[in-house]
C-alpha cells in the first residue's frame, strides 16, 4: 500500500509543474479567429507545450471552428 502511495506522489510531482505552467493562447491575439489572417506568422515565436490551450474567439454566427 505504501509503495502505491509513493508512486502516486512521484507521478503527481512530475505532472504538477506542467499543469501549473500551462498557458492559454488566444488564436489571432486581439484580432481573434477570422478569415484571411496569417496564422503561421502568428504562431512563429510562440512556444506551445503539452497542456496549453488554444482559445478561439470569434463573433457567434460569423465564424466557426471544426474539431
TrEMBL record:
Any one GO cellular component localisation term in the record: plasma membrane
GO molecular function terms here? electron transfer activity
Signal peptide positions (record): 1-22
> Is Signal among the key words of this record?
yes
Segments forming domain Phytocyanin: 23-67
Keywords, comma-separated and alphabetical: Signal
InterPro entries documented for this protein: Cupredoxin, Phytocyanin-like, Phytocyanin_dom
**Protein name, entry field:** Phytocyanin domain-containing protein
